Amino acid sequence: MIRFENVWKQYDDGFVALKNINLEIQKGELVTLIGPSGCGKTTTMRMINRLIEPTSGTIYIDGQDIAKMNPVELRRNIGYVIQQIGLFPHMTIAENIALVPKLKKWEPSAYQKRVDELLDLVGLDPATFKHRYPSELSGGQQQRVGVIRALAAEPDIILMDEPFSALDPISREQLQEDIVKLQEEIQKTIVFVTHDMDEAIKIANRIAIMKDGEIVQFATPDQILRRPANSFVRGFIGENRLAQRQTAVPTAEDLMSHSIATVSPKRGLAEAFRFMKEKKVDSLIVTDKKQSFLGVVTLKELEKHYHQEHLLVADIADFDVTTLTKDADVTDVAEIFHQRDVSAIPVLDGDRLVGVITRSSMMRGLAEWEFQKQP
Ligand SMILES: Nc1ncnc2c1ncn2[C@@H]1O[C@H](COP(=O)(O)OP(=O)(O)OP(=O)(O)O)[C@@H](O)[C@H]1O
Ligand SMILES: [Mg+2]
Fold first, then answer.
1. C-alpha–C-alpha distance, residues 290 and 287, integer Å
2. Where in the cell is it found (predicted)?
3. Which of 52, 162, 298, 327 has its CA 20 to 30 A from that of 140?
4. Can you give the residue ranges of every domain in the chain?
5. Please, what sign has the CA dihedral across residues 295, 296, 302, 305?
6. In DSSP terms, which residues pair with 21 in a beta bridge?
7. Which H helix or E strand runs over 21?
8. Nearest C-alpha to atom 6 of ligand 1 is from which residue?
9. Is the dihedral of CA 151, 156, 161, 162 positive or negative?
10. pLDDT of the residue at 336
11. pLDDT reported for residue 185
12. Phi-psi region of 225 (alpha: psi -120 to 50; beta: other; left: phi over 0)
C-alpha cells in the first residue's frame, strides 16, 4: 500500500534527517512511528502526503510513484491530523469537519449526517458543538475534532501526528479504543506518530522504532516486547514494561514452597524413611551438596526396596523427573498436575533446586498472588 524505497532527506541547512528509509505498510494496517524527539517521525510522515519531498528515493502508494501524482489530489485521499490541531478558526466545527467531503462534492445531506456521526463517535453532542467555533472549545475537544475531521471524507490513508498528546488520560484511552475499533471495522491504512510506547502497543499492528533518521526495528508489538532488536529498543520499551508483561500471570516461583524436603543420594533407605516421617511428606528431592537437583525418591519405592539393606537413595531414585524453571507460568504447572501422577514438582533455577510446588503450595500461591494484585 505505502512503500518507502531508499528514502533520504537532507534539509536545506545540510542536516540529514532521514537515512535510507525502507518501509512497507500494508493496506488496512495501523503502523505507529515511535522514537525520541528529532528522530525523523514527522519528516517521514509528511512525505506520504508530499508536504515534504525526499532528497532521494521513491515513495509508492498502491504501486504508484507519488512524486508523479498531483499533490492536491493526493492529499484529498489522505486524512491528516497534526498535534497543533489545525482547525480553521473562522469556520464552525461542522464546517471544519465537512471541509474535505465538500471538496469531494458530497451531497449536503450526506456530509451533514457524517458530521453528526463523527461528533457522536468522540462524545461531543452534535447539537451543542456543531455551530461553535474552535476557540469556543477546550484544547482536548478541539483535538478530538481534529481527529474526526481527518476521518470525515473516508480517505484510504490517515496520517496522525501525535493526535492525542493534549488529551487527558481518559479521553485519550477512549480515542485509542475508537481508533482500534474503527480500524477493525473500516480497515483504513493509518500511520500514527507517538512518543508513548503504551499507546503504540495498544493500537498498532506494527511499530517502527526510529533513531537518528533510521528505522531500528519494524515488527509487531509482541515481537518487539519479546525480542527487542538491540539495547536502544530495550531501553525505549523500558525494562519495567518487559517485566510487567512477564508477571501478568503467576509463575512457578509464585506458586512454590521454599521448605523443601531434600536428601543426599548417598543416604541409606532407613534414613530416607525417617526423614519422610519427620517431614510428613511422601517424597524427597535428591540433591547434591551444592543443592543441584538430581531426582526424586518416593515413599512407594522406598517401601518396595526397604528390605534390601545394601541399597542407597541413589539406587532407587527416579532421575527422570518433570521439573519446571522458576519463570514457568501457572498453565504449565496445572498441565503437569493434570497429566501426571505427581504430588510435587521441583522448581529449578539453572540446575539449582529453589522450591517445590505441591497442590497445596499452588493454592496458597494463587490466593496470595490475587491478593497482591488488589489495589
Ligand atoms: N525545515 C527543516 N530544516 C532543517 N532541519 C529540520 C527541518 N525540519 C526538521 N528538521 C530536523 O530534522 C530532524 C527530524 O525532525 P522531525 O520533525 O521529523 O522529528 P520528530 O521525530 O517528528 O520529532 P518530535 O518527536 O520532536 O516531533 C530534527 O532534528 C529537526 O530539527
Ligand atoms: Mg514530530
1. 8
2. Cell inner membrane
3. 52
4. 2-246, 252-373
5. negative
6. 7
7. strand 16-25
8. 11
9. positive
10. 87
11. 73
12. alpha
The three cell numbers locating residue 248:
501478568
Quickly name the fold that domain 252-373 has.
CBS-domain (3.10.580)
Please give the distance, rounded to the nearest whole angstrom, from the Cα atom of residue 166 to the centre of ligand 2: 14
* Phi, psi of 259, rounded to the nearest 5 degrees: -85, 105
H helices within the chain, ranges in order?
A: 41-48, 71-76, 93-103, 108-121, 126-129, 139-151, 169-186, 197-203, 221-226, 231-237, 239-246, 252-255, 269-279, 299-305, 313-316, 330-339, 359-373
Domain range 2-246, CATH class: alpha beta
**What span, in angstroms and rounded, lies between the C-alpha atoms of 153 and 104?**
8
- List pLDDT tens digits, range 170-209: 778 878 887 887 777 778 899 999 988 889 998 999 999 9
Task: Look at ligand 1, atom 2, and give the residue with the nearest C-alpha.
Answer: 11
Judge if 2-246 and 252-373 fold alike in CATH terms: no
| Amino acid identity for residue 291 in this structure | Q
Task: Give the residue whose CA is nearest to atom 26 of ligand 1.
Answer: 37
Number of CB atoms found within 10 A of residue 196's CB: 15
Q: What is the pLDDT of residue 372?
A: 62
CA-wise closest residue to 204 among 80, 11, 25, 371: 25
* pLDDT score of 375: 45
Query: What cell numbers appear for 272 in the block?
Result: 530416607
Residue 196, phi then psi, degrees to nearest 5 = -105, 110
At residue 183, the pLDDT reads 79
Q: Give pLDDT, residue 245.
A: 46
Position 178 scores a pLDDT of 77
pLDDT averaged over the chain?
A: 88
User: Rounded distance, CA 7 to CA 56, Å?
Assistant: 6
* Beta-ladder partners of 24: 3
Residues 6+ apart with CB under 8 A from 123: 144, 171, 174
Residues of the chain with pLDDT under 70: 83-85, 166, 239-248, 371-375
Which of 4, 16, 21, 42 should be mutated for ligand 1, with most atoms under 8 A from CB? 42
Any idea which ligand is nearest the CA of 34?
Answer: 1
